[in-house]
Design brief:
By secondary structure, this protein is of the alpha/beta class. The protein is built from 7 helices and 7 strands; from the N terminus they run ββαβαββββααααα. A hairpin with a 4-residue loop joins strand 4 and strand 5.
Length: 200
């Protein structure tokens, strides 16, 4: 089977750009979840892994390498798993397969390592700029106690992640609420903190 894996960070994000050639595949797996969550822990990622272990898939396509993971270790671990199971990975934006004639493609591994490192560095820089922005806002007295990494008020934040908040209020675990709400574990933790703030 030839399949495609698609990931977007939130439920609101559109997947059409990644799914534009979906007719070429036997199946398309779509995860609406943070890239910070390990591929092996994502709902659709798990299903894909199971199919691979059953020997039902021999080719996986992704739009770009950061759809697999946000840090280089996760990316390389997934690539290694696919290679060990004789599954070719094709990354569309670089136009390259992980395996050629049944053997690992060394050029692919080198390029993926570089792209993975760049992606991880960009993510870390973004988070650092975000943190600095909050510190500056606090120093100027214009920071209104909003959640870390969010430009929304607590009420707006809870409204945006209403599904996660509802699941947590119903007694679901953080991991379960995150999975049901299609968000990262970190976001679910922030929702839990926001709920506590509302009751203070």
């Amino acid at each position: 089977m030839k399949v495609k894996y698609v990931r977007v960070s939130t439920v609101e994000q559109n997947t059409s750009r990644q799914e534009k050639n979906e007719s070429e595949f036997d199946k398309v797996y779509v995860d609406r979840i943070s890239g910070a969550i390990s591929f092996f822990e994502r709902p659709q990622g798990k299903k894909l892994i199971d199919r691979i272990k059953q020997g039902r898939i021999d080719e996986v396509h992704v739009l770009s390498i950061d759809r697999i993971g946000r840090n280089i270790l996760d990316i390389l671990t997934v690539c290694e798993f696919l290679t060990e199971n004789s599954v070719k990975l094709y990354v569309e934006n670089i136009g390259m397969f992980s395996m050629v004639d049944g053997k690992q493609n060394p050029i692919f591994k080198m390029i993926v390592s570089v792209l993975g490192n760049v992606s991880e560095m960009e993510r870390n820089n973004m988070l650092e700029r975000q943190r600095q922005g909050i510190e500056i806002a606090k120093a100027k007295g214009v920071y209104n106690g909003r959640l870390y990494g969010s430009r929304m008020s607590t009420e707006e934040f809870l409204k945006k992640y209403k599904k996660v908040a509802t699941e947590l209020e119903n007694g679901e675990s953080l991991r379960r609420a995150a999975a049901l709400g299609g968000v990262s574990l970190g976001t679910a933790q922030r929702v839990k903190r926001a709920l506590k703030e509302q009751t203070l």
